[in-house]
Amino acid sequence: GFLVYNFSSWLMRYIEETYGDDAMRRFDEANAARPENLLLMGNLNRVLLDVFDVSADELYEGFRSWLRDEFQAELLAIQENPITRPVQITQTGYTTGQPAWSPDGEWIAYVHSGPGRQGLRLITTMGEEDHEITNGAGLAYPDWSPLPSDESAEYQPKLLYSKLEAKGPYYVLRDLYEYDVTRDREERLTHQARAYYARYAPETSQIIYYAHNHGRDGSTALSKLDRETGESEM
């Protein structure tokens, strides 16, 4: 989505630099004068010919040439340094995102959404052993528990995240959950907290900071959850 908006902004800049500062205004006025275009059944190519005396294909070819000239120096600078090639490590398709790299460097947790199902999955950093560990509506923003301060202690990883819960047809809440990777067990941490984002404290998994909606107007707040006492405070 970001690439589309970024690309479009450069196209508008090209049009204004090539056809004048008022080029977009003239295009909008000509396009608005054609009601059929407002119904998505018109001919933008005809508008371009009327306003700029170029077809859509000619405009795009000019834009591509302009982009090459505009970014030539930047492209050369990038090519002088080694380029890191991306490697696809998941094959699940649909919507995959919100990756979280485990602090021991062994696993990546990520959220996957498909038809009628959303789950939290684990995959090794080499793209192996991809599997779902838990699922739920609106599951989001996983965070790994920090490494123990005692370097000799064994790391028992946990994952913190939020999930949605429907309370009737018109009332939806979001609460915090924790998944114990070692024990393969999920634990609910809050009830009706309206918590939508959380992170462990850097030094301990016993303290959790989380953002949540507060009050009837939906204002946001930041609170701290003490795992030992189960108490939260803003």
What is the strand and helix layout of this fold?
Blueprint: H1 2-19, H2 23-32, H3 35-38, H4 44-52, H5 56-79, E1 95-101, E2 107-114, E3 117-124, E4 131-135, E5 140-144, E6 158-166, E7 172-180, E8 185-188, E9 195-201, E10 204-214, E11 219-226, E12 232-233
Antiparallel strand pairs: 1-2, 2-3, 3-4, 5-6, 6-7, 7-8, 9-10, 10-11, 11-12
Helix pairs in contact: 2-4
Describe this structure in words.
The chain is α+β, with helices and mostly antiparallel strands. The chain has helices spanning 2-19, 23-32, 35-38, 44-52, 56-79; strands at residues 95-101, 107-114, 117-124, 131-135, 140-144, 158-166, 172-180, 185-188, 195-201, 204-214, 219-226, 232-233. The chain is 28% helix and 35% strand. The chain contains 5 helices and 12 strands.
Proportion of strand residues: 35-45%
Distance between the termini: 35 Å
The strand line-up of the biggest sheet is 1-2-3-4
The amount of helix comes to: 25-40%
Specify the overall morphology. elongated
Largest sheet at a glance? 4 strands, antiparallel
**What is the mean predicted local confidence, pLDDT?**
90
Number of strands: 12
Low-confidence blocks of residues: none
Structural class: alpha+beta
- Elements, N to C (H/E): HHHHHEEEEEEEEEEEE
Computed Rg: 26 Å
Number of helices: 5
